[in-house]
Amino acid sequence: MNTYTAEVSCIQDLTHDVRAIELRLLDPPTIAFQAGQFISFEVPKEGQSRPVTRPYSIASPPERREHILLVLNLVQGGPGSSYLFRLREGERTSFKGPAGAFYLRDDGTKDLLFVATGTGIAPIRSMILAQLQRAPDRPVTLFWGLRSQRDLYWQDELGALAAAHPRFTVVTTLSRPEPGWQGASGRVTALVEERITSVSNLAAYLCGGSGMIKDVMATLRAKGLCPIYREKYYDE
Ligand SMILES: Cc1cc2nc3c(=O)[nH]c(=O)nc-3n(C[C@H](O)[C@H](O)[C@H](O)COP(=O)(O)OP(=O)(O)OC[C@H]3O[C@@H](n4cnc5c(N)ncnc54)[C@H](O)[C@@H]3O)c2cc1C
């Protein structure tokens, strides 16, 4: 793993508690990684003399080697997210990486299923952008679970990608929609149960909390055997 110095080049608030942070690499000036991998920050923790390490997935595609995009939740009082939310445009930071075994496999024959909850979309965005460029004619499905309308982001971007790639299907489902929601509601597990009819030519990539990963794995396993790759962000 290398150590990188970077400058915060752009900050965008995506919702009331989700922020996208773009970092421009300074030293070294580029980064090579596989779609799906993460980087790690060492951050101070109150009441502790040693810093703690927090990993964050890269949400941008690997061909963008001079900038990386992160997307993260504010976890109240959490050292990692508080540190990143305190960063301002133009400020410098450093991180280690890239790392992780959750990356897009180079298997051109499988249909791909991506399932994310919350900011688990980060590595999956990188993978989908890489996959649509690498093999635009392979079927790709994304099921993304969020809580309610105020938690939605990247809907226009995903809609535009689906319009440009007829074999890319995206469904965002809200577990607690407010009245007026026209889209899917309920958990991503229910979408997997109802809409994935065969796993015989499927590879699945899951990212989010432990509960979703456990449930979706069980649902897929009940349908048959297929490769399932996963990244657990936290225990539920
Ligand atoms: C490989 C990997 C990649 C990750 N990539 C991302 C990423 O791209 N974006 C991101 O937002 N987080 C990501 N996480 C989670 C991240 O590393 C931290 O755990 C998170 O930012 C909370 O850290 P903290 O120090 O602020 O709070 P802590 O005090 O360490 O966490 C407090 C609690 O917050 C909850 N929590 C942790 N992560 C989340 C989350 N994302 N959403 C809601 N609740 C959460 C958990 O219950 C956790 O126990 C990733 C985790 C792993 C293991």
From TrEMBL:
Q: Which Gene3D superfamilies match?
A: Nucleotide-binding domain of ferredoxin-NADP reductase (FNR) module (3.40.50.80), Translation factors (2.40.30.10)
Q: Which InterPro entries match?
A: Cbr1-like_FAD-bd_dom (IPR008333), FAD-bd_FR_type (IPR017927), Flavoprot_Pyr_Nucl_cyt_Rdtase (IPR001709), FNR_nucleotide-bd (IPR039261), MRET (IPR050415), OxRdtase_FAD/NAD-bd (IPR001433), Riboflavin_synthase-like_b-brl (IPR017938)
Q: Which PROSITE patterns match?
A: FAD_FR
Please give one Pfam family short name. Answer: NAD_binding_1
Q: Where is the FAD-binding FR-type domain?
A: 1-105
Q: SUPFAM superfamilies in the record, alphabetically?
A: Ferredoxin reductase-like, C-terminal NADP-linked domain, Riboflavin synthase domain-like
Looking up PANTHER family in the UniProt record yields: NADH OXIDOREDUCTASE HCR, PROTEIN RFBI
What is the designated name of this protein?
FAD-binding FR-type domain-containing protein
